[in-house]
């Protein structure tokens, strides 16, 4: 009997220690857990704040122009590549490939677009600080659109002059300027750019930036859609009956997601991302150049003439706080990549910045094992989850699926 | 009297312990993994610096302190007897003790507001939980620092 009493006392003490914050009104979840679950619901996402660096960000005419540009393959070196080539509207604006392919093959995975207007940093490494600036990068990348800014200004003048001028005002005079000129293009295009005077460069840069701002105005309209998880979180937060909204396995996965799995350390808030950069020991891909992620991007975003501080930004002196107070130093930036939103993640294989993992099962195993990083220091520590727990976590992630709800047609 | 407790019994008689033990183990597991901050955490936003040279006060820009948005805070510094400390050099840093990482930004004092108060811009927290904020103050009395606790 003494043994039984001792065991009972230990059990009671442990239960008190472990579950002392249980809210009796919410069986199964503590008050802390209930709050955390509610904070992940899409219904807590605030209205999209304006982008001070893009004066036309919420102009419907700019969005209509941007939408047309998004699907226009003329904005490329071979007439075959549009934004929508890799950002497929019926696939969450991504392409399902480990590495994106435009004019050539890139070294990174295509990212989805929904909700990116909420994030201060774009691309896996955050080397761009606005949607409009991000849109400019691929246009001049030799392996993506392979276009150049002078060519793009000519395409706008020839095909979109009226729509462009209605939003941005008059186009500059382009006659007499080279067909192809850019500071980031081929040797020939760079030589042509070097030969241009400052005023012409500025005029072309402004048209180029405006193309990005129109595309961003369109991208700002691409928002995540409510999921089964959101229905559950909202019902739980409101104290409504949650019976049948999630299966037992999905609920167990949610418990792991916010607890033992430590997923909400980085995948938090209604977009399930902290919009920051983390080294999680993702393996390097053989054959790709050395990739140190955020560490390298810091200098790139600071030097970018199309950043929030730059002459083509519409931001005022009090704006650009994210860039101004950006974390610039530290070993934790080495091979750190942005936490992506987990909304729709199940339908978005393969995973990580170079498509390193083909399945979610492989990802949860990676996080469970927490291997050392190829460079820098992984933030992970082993989770010691069982096979059953890993499967439950995967089941929960599927409740974040949007089932094609956000597809749009050109 | 019944037999002593050391007397062997039918194993079935201890079966009732099984669910209790499972609950106990589960409870410990949840407690460890959720890792709530220490229960006795001092959440005071006014603290004396380590060597008693100054008293610092953090004034968050919003209450409750938001997660994920960049914020402007105010820091007030006085001497131990309550006189405002002006023209001090102040640096501010922070992190999550249980996660081993710092702030996602590099906040700075951008303006001296007068009366020993200083504007701090660029404060940001990218996850809920226990954060610490360390204030380092250099003034005529010397250099000293204080570490504050926040739970978001």
> Structural class, from helix and strand content of chain B?
mainly beta
Report the biggest beta sheet of chain B as strand number plus sense, adding barrel if it closes.
Answer: 5 strands, antiparallel
Number of strands of chain B: 9
Strand content of chain B: 35-45%
For this structure, the CATH topology of the domain at 46-151 in chain B is Immunoglobulin-like
Topology:
The complex is a heterodimer of chains A (410) and B (152).
Chain A: H1 2-19, H2 31-39, H3 60-70, H4 83-86, H5 131-140, H6 149-159, H7 161-168, H8 187-195, H9 198-219, H10 228-238, H11 248-258, E1 277-278, H12 294-303, H13 321-324, E2 337-338, H14 360-369, H15 387-398
Antiparallel strand pairs in A: 1-2
Chain B: H1 17-34, E1 46-48, E2 55-59, E3 71-78, E4 89-96, E5 101-102, E6 108-114, E7 117-123, E8 130-139, E9 142-151
Antiparallel strand pairs in B: 1-2, 2-3, 3-7, 4-5, 4-8, 6-7, 8-9
Q: Could you walk me through the main structural features you see in this protein, from its secondary elements to its overall organization?
A:
The complex is a heterodimer of chains A (410) and B (152). In chain A, helix 3 (60-70) packs across helix 9, helix 5 (131-140) crosses helix 9 and helix 14 (360-369) crosses helix 15. Chain A has a two-stranded antiparallel sheet with strand order 1-2. Chain A folds into 2 domains: 19-48 and 225-398, Orthogonal Bundle (Cytochrome Bc1 Complex, Chain D, domain 2), CATH 1.10.760; 60-219, Cytochrome Bc1 Complex, Chain D, domain 2 (Orthogonal Bundle), CATH 1.10.760.10. The model of chain A is unreliable at 1-26 and 404-410 (pLDDT under 50). The longest helix of chain A is centred in the middle third of the chain and has 22 residues, at 198-219. Chain A is mostly helical and 410 residues long. Chain A has helices at residues 2-19, 31-39, 60-70, 83-86, 131-140, 149-159, 161-168, 187-195, 198-219, 228-238, 248-258, 294-303, 321-324, 360-369, 387-398, and strands at residues 277-278, 337-338. Chain B is mostly beta strands. A 5-stranded antiparallel β-sheet of chain B has the order 1-2-3-7-6, with no helix packed on it. In chain B, a hairpin with a 6-residue loop joins strand 1 (46-48) and strand 2. Chain B is globular, with a radius of gyration of 24 Å. The chains are: A mainly alpha (410), B mainly beta (152). The interface between A and B is large, with 44 and 36 residues.
